[in-house]
Specification:
Layout: H1 2-15, E1 21-31, E2 34-43, E3 49-50, E4 57-58, E5 60-74, E6 77-90, E7 94-97, H2 111-120, H3 126-132, H4 137-154, E8 162-171, E9 175-184, E10 187-195, H5 199-209, H6 211-215, E11 219-222, H7 226-235, E12 240-243, H8 245-269, H9 280-284, H10 292-301, H11 307-318, H12 327-342, H13 347-358, H14 360-368, H15 375-391, H16 398-409
Parallel strand pairs: 2-6, 8-11, 11-12
Antiparallel strand pairs: 1-2, 3-4, 5-6, 6-7, 8-9, 9-10
Bound molecules: zinc ion.
The site of zinc ion (ZN) has 8 residues, from loops.
């Protein structure tokens, strides 16, 4: 089989050259019911091991037993490098295991394979990647984690002048995370994620960003969440703080949902016609997104003078707020809308109006910022984040979530070899 052995070595030397090591015997074996390729590695004759402590070439001390290092599968066949690591005698560090060019620290995955798995994890769920390449969920996770660490250490934070702050619920109950996005026209990405949605969480973001960079922030988009408002006012008072459209309209949709649920119950209790049955989405969707049948149903329901209907009309009416150009007229509209809603005697809607009144100045910043940072940006990133969350499904830990979010939304730099095998 000399010919075959030569060919695999030739390929490896071509795609994965290791200067101080040589590829030796290649064996095709059956391992755990899988065809497996084992490729022996040995140090090049006369070369010294590199001390993992100081990175210097040092004389040998002894050798450890053989270990397998998983490499990128070739033609669907599992591949391992097999190598007995040397220990070196270092005058500075003592007896140390040598540093290997194909694997970091104590890892059993080669660096090339880890980048390969991490790259696939952008396109498939972690479980799918593990299945496709005969790996494990944990190996995929640690590969993605490695890629994220590498990228986070090298990310460029120049030019971050607009940020969006959002919260996400990621586990049943009330477990939230705070996410901060960069929302500049040319660069939209996840900058930071932290557990919970408290003032402390957001303070940690600003500490991470640093004073100098915080001073360069001109625009902050956020929800009306009190903890966020407080911290932004304290840490980025110089920036124009915009309450964004997406969040405000979400508050309104939630209010309508409440009104509808309550009213549905009331009607049922009174033995009246279940006109609201199945109507939830008609009221929440944009009218243009309704099917013909839904639009017709909605039109029927709108004939009744229901609280749900009145709430819906208030919300639809509020849409024109965003169309104003001048902050002056926008303010007049807002005041009128709030007065009308306060008189509606619909509690959930009144709550929304009271909230808008309280934050009137921040709301009007939207017009002062010339609508430059549309909520569509935060909304879009928010949807992507939810998708990333689903893909990482497996371990419900904050660490796994954090790694998944940075990996898919962080727009992180990668080494040039990362795509070579994918
Ligand atoms: Zn050393």
């Amino acid at each position: 089989m000399e010919g075959n052995r030569m060919r695999i070595k030739t390929i490896l030397n071509r795609i994965h050259n290791l200067q101080s090591f040589v590829y030796g015997d290649v064996r095709l074996i059956e391992r755990n019911g899988q065809p497996t390729l084992e490729i022996n590695l040995r140090p090049r004759r006369g070369s010294q091991g590199i001390c993992a402590g100081c990175g210097q070439k040092r004389p040998g001390y002894d050798r450890l037993s053989k270990r397998r290092f998983a490499f990128v599968p070739l033609w669907g066949i599992v591949v391992f490098f097999v190598y007995a690591r040397r220990r070196v005698h270092c005058p500075t560090c003592g007896v140390k295991v040598e540093q290997l060019p194909w694997a970091e620290g104590n890892h059993r995955l080669t660096t090339t394979y880890a980048w390969f798995l991490a790259d696939w994890a952008r396109r498939l769920s972690w479980t799918e990647v593990a299945d496709a390449f005969h790996s494990t969920w944990y190996h995929v996770f640690s590969s993605v984690k490695m890629a994220v660490q590498w990228g986070r250490e090298r990310m460029d934070l120049e030019g971050v002048t607009a940020i969006g702050i959002d919260e996400m619920q990621w586990a049943p109950g009330h477990t939230y995370v705070t996410v901060v996005y960069q929302i500049n026209e040319g660069c939209r990405r996840l900058l930071w994620v932290g557990p919970h949605r408290t003032a402390k969480t957001l303070l940690r973001f600003f500490r991470w960003l640093g004073k100098e960079r915080t001073r360069q922030i001109g625009f902050v988009c956020s929800d009306m969440w009190k903890a966020y408002l407080k911290v932004v006012a304290k840490k980025a008072a110089h920036a124009v703080h915009i309450l964004d459209r997406f969040h405000i309209m979400t508050h309104m949709s939630k209010a309508i949902d409440k009104v509808r649920a309550q009213e549905g119950k009331d009607l049922k209790a009174k033995g009246l016609e279940p006109v609201l049955k199945g109507s939830r989405w008609w009221f929440l969707k944009k009218p243009t997104n309704l099917t013909a049948r839904q639009a017709q149903k909605l039109a029927e329901v709108l004939r009744y003078n229901l609280r749900t209907v009145r709430s819906y009309l208030l919300k639809e009416d509020f849409q024109s707020f965003w169309e104003y150009v001048s902050p002056y007229w926008a303010r007049r509209f807002l005041d009128q809308w709030c007065t009308r809603t306060m008189r509606s005697r619909i509690e959930p809607m009144k709550k929304v109006a009271a909230m808008l009144r309280r934050h009137r100045e921040l709301l009007l910043n939207w017009f002062r910022a010339k609508k430059e940072f549309s909520s569509g940006v935060v909304e879009g990133l928010n949807n992507k984040a939810k998708l990333a969350m689903k893909r990482a499904y497996g371990f419900r830990t904050f660490e796994a979530l954090e790694v998944a979010l940075y990996h898919t939304l962080g727009n992180l730099p990668q080494p040039s070899f990362a795509h070579r095998f994918s």
